[in-house]
Structures are given as C-alpha cells and as structure tokens.
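Pipeline run #58 for the internal structure catalog. This entry was flagged by the ingest filter as a single-chain record with no existing model, so it goes straight to prediction. Upstream metadata was stripped on purpose; only the residue string is passed forward. Reviewer on rotation: M.T. Logging verbosity set to normal.
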Amino acid sequence: MTFSESLEFGHADRKAIYEHVERHGAVDPNDVRDRLGIDPSGFRHHVAILKRDGRLEETDGRLRVTIEAGAEEEYVSEDLEFHIRPARQEDLSGIVGAIRQVAEERTYIEAESVADEVDHEETLLRHNELESRMFFVATVDDEVVGWVHLHAPELEKLSHTAELTVGVVEGYRGHGIGSHLLSRGLEWAGSNGYEKVYQSVPSTNDDAIAFLEAHDWETEAVREDHYKLNGDYVDEVMMAVEL
C-alpha cells in the first residue's frame, strides 16, 4: 500500500481492525480479535481481505500495516558497512535513542519533537485519515545510527507537502550516511506523490544548513528569534526542496 491511496474498507469491522493495528504498530491477531469483540470466523475473513487488498501483513505472528517502501540497501564507506531500510515497529526505541542523542546538541528542535511524539504514542509508522508518518533507518551491526522521517497531514490543501527530519549519531558522521538517508527519504516522498518537502532548523545549526544547501535545498523564510536556546534567542531557518 502506498500513502497516496485513499482508505476505504467496505465494512465497519474491517475498518476497526485496520485502525487498531495502525494505532498500535504491531499486534497479535488474537489480541485484536478479543479487543474488538469480533467472532473468530468473521475476524479471519476480514483479515484475509485486508491482506489481499494490501492493507495489512502478518510477520512473525503479528499484524502490521503494509507500507510499500522498498528493500534494504547495503553500503560500504572506507572501513564502515551500513544498511538503510524501511523502519519497523521494533526500531522505535532505537530511533528515539538516536534522535535524542542528536537533539542533545541543542541544534535540532523539530527532531526532538518527533522523538517525543513517537515515544508517547509508542507507534512508529502511521497512515490514517488524519496523517501519514514514515521512517527509514541506517543501521550498523543492527544498531540504529541514523534516521530520516517524513510526516504529512492528510489535508487536501497540504497533500502535496511533507515535513522531513534527518540525522546521524555523531560517531557515525562523515561516511555519507546522512546523504543516503536523505536521498532515500526524498525518493520515497516523490514516489508517493509529494511535490515539496520542508524542514526548519535553528540558524545556529550551520552544519545542517550547509548539508541541505549542498543537496539543493533553499531557504524559504527566516523567523527571527523563534527559538530560545540556553537563554539566547535564535532565528528559525525554514528550508525546502521541490521534487
């Protein structure tokens, strides 16, 4: 299922099953059935249709929302081997940890809010009538060392835009991981019908601004004194790229 598809289910129980799985990330089918109070035969029928229609999939005995996001890719940079792949619900703690490490530098406010949101919801990927949220991760020896995140409200007037955050844990920078993550995220956004991707960073984050400019992002606006970091007022730099 792509994020550009409309969500139509044809049956109230089918919609309820999808919404429960989408809200919780990865769940035991029996738990879903018991929680929703659907009889076993009806539940199996609805799940089979949701699988057939590409809405849900079952992996390791747990139901998940199906999202078409491509395969895992392997890269080698000097003496470092890393992989970039679509995130899974099981990556939640690793992603939150990586974002918080980057956010400790006090230069990426938007990413910090993303970590707070997914940590609070305990759900990584979302696709419902209100919003869509996608992550890709970079891993080294199965440890999350970087991420790219895209978030889009399901509003008609904003349906062509998505907000992006991207970051790499300090000890793994300088190997091209950030560039590969950014490229993967923008490729996914383009294939799902988004025309413009944007993000905001404090004006003190020179490295992030230079990184984005090197990848053809442009500054659209500057909001003066928008952030207050360590007691000092800092401008917000609003940047975007057209796909």
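catalog note: The radius of gyration is 19 Å.
catalog note: The helical segments are 12-24, 29-36, 40-52, 92-103, 109-121, 177-191, 206-214.
status: ready for reviewer M.T.
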